[in-house]
């Protein structure tokens, strides 16, 4: 069957599939095919595909035997995939069990289904999970050619941010010095290091730091990665005036760390500042906070105002890419 397809390199396939699925652009009746290191994803509307993707026409087989959860349930359930774990968020226990059973019975290559049992809690931003199928909460997640071992019950990780992380990583140049102030298991640190940067990652969660070190080893970049456990305001003093690039992905309280960010910045530094604000003025409060912390020591120039995703009704998760020049 001749259909328009997005063509991506195989290692970037899962992140691309997820992004297209979130926009409901994948043709479910046609197979996704891998050939010669390329993944061909059939799409419904080539004109709606983001310009970052390559669109080609390809003869692909129709799907015959593989069933997805929606085929079994009769409706499209909401879920996220993280390695071989599927994450759902259902308040009704019976519906949660029904969705989990459908996921297991489907063609999805998963081993475990978890249902959110709490909101993100505490300084380490972890949450509780109910295991509905399979066992264990550790998995290996892959995105854009990087591999991350993690335990969803012990560290914070959001697969929804894969596209945003890739957007930022593509800006990194070899020989940069980058500092992730809230590094987690390394979803910014590892791709930065793979692009040739020297990277420091800090986190208050000692479990996340252990995974960060392991993920640096898994991805062959341990010689370019330094992991620091503790509050970055107290543990990073030796890196003052050091960074060419800073990542501040702690949207609810990154403003509390701006003085430290300014102290870490070198003579010229790009700051990726994440925030959650009302849709009426999603970027203004963050820009004002950065200017208050950095001026007059630095000239402040906002290079990109990026909407990452909708966070809650009338609230947006956004990123400001800001250049500081001393």
Automatic annotation (TrEMBL):
<keyword id="KW-0808">Transferase</keyword>
<dbReference type="GO" id="GO:0002939">
    <property type="term" value="P:tRNA N1-guanine methylation"/>
</dbReference>
<dbReference type="Pfam" id="PF02475">
    <property type="entry name" value="TRM5-TYW2_MTfase"/>
</dbReference>
<dbReference type="InterPro" id="IPR040601">
    <property type="entry name" value="Trm5a/b_N"/>
</dbReference>
<dbReference type="GO" id="GO:0008175">
    <property type="term" value="F:tRNA methyltransferase activity"/>
</dbReference>
<dbReference type="InterPro" id="IPR029063">
    <property type="entry name" value="SAM-dependent_MTases_sf"/>
</dbReference>
<dbReference type="GO" id="GO:0005737">
    <property type="term" value="C:cytoplasm"/>
</dbReference>
<dbReference type="InterPro" id="IPR056744">
    <property type="entry name" value="TRM5/TYW2-like_N"/>
</dbReference>
<keyword id="KW-0819">tRNA processing</keyword>
<dbReference type="InterPro" id="IPR030382">
    <property type="entry name" value="MeTrfase_TRM5/TYW2"/>
</dbReference>
<keyword id="KW-0963">Cytoplasm</keyword>
<protein>
    <submittedName>
        <fullName>Methyltransferase</fullName>
    </submittedName>
</protein>
<keyword id="KW-0949">S-adenosyl-L-methionine</keyword>
<keyword id="KW-0489">Methyltransferase</keyword>
<dbReference type="Pfam" id="PF25133">
    <property type="entry name" value="TYW2_N_2"/>
</dbReference>
<dbReference type="Pfam" id="PF18093">
    <property type="entry name" value="Trm5_N"/>
</dbReference>
<feature type="domain" description="SAM-dependent methyltransferase TRM5/TYW2-type">
    <location>
        <begin position="79"/>
        <end position="326"/>
    </location>
</feature>
<dbReference type="InterPro" id="IPR056743">
    <property type="entry name" value="TRM5-TYW2-like_MTfase"/>
</dbReference>
């Amino acid at each position: 069957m001749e259909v328009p397809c997005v063509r991506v390199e195989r290692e970037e396939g899962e992140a691309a599939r997820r992004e297209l699925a979130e926009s409901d652009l994948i043709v479910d009746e046609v197979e996704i095919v891998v050939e010669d290191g390329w993944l061909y994803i059939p799409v419904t509307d080539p004109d709606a595909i983001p310009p970052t993707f390559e669109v080609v026409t390809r003869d692909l087989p129709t799907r015959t035997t593989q069933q997805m959860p929606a085929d079994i349930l009769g409706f499209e359930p909401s879920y996220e995939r993280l390695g071989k774990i599927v994450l759902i968020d259902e308040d009704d226990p019976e519906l949660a069990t029904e969705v989990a059973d459908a996921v297991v019975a489907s063609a999805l290559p998963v081993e475990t289904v978890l249902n959110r049992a709490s909101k993100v809690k505490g300084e380490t931003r972890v949450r509780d999970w109910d295991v509905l199928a399979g066992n264990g909460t550790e998995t290996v997640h892959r995105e854009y050619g990087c591999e991350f071992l993690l335990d969803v019950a012990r560290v914070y990780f959001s697969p929804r941010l894969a596209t945003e992380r890739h957007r930022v990583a593509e800006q990194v140049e070899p020989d940069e010095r980058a500092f992730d102030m809230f590094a987690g298991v390394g979803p910014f640190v590892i791709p930065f290091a793979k692009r040739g940067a020297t990277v420091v990652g800090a986190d208050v969660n000692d479990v996340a730091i252990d995974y960060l070190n392991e993920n640096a080893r898994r991805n062959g970049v341990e010689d370019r990665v330094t992991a620091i456990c503790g509050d970055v305001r107290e543990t990073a003093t030796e890196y003052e005036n050091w960074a060419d690039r800073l990542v501040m992905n702690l949207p609810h309280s990154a403003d509390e760390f701006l003085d430290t960010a300014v102290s870490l910045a070198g003579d010229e530094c790009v700051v990726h500042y994440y925030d959650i604000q009302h849709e009426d003025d999603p970027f203004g409060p963050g820009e004002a906070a950065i200017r208050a912390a950095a001026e007059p020591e630095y000239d402040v120039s906002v290079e990109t105002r990026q909407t990452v995703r909708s966070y809650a009704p009338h609230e947006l998760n956004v990123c400001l890419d800001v250049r500081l020049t001393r």
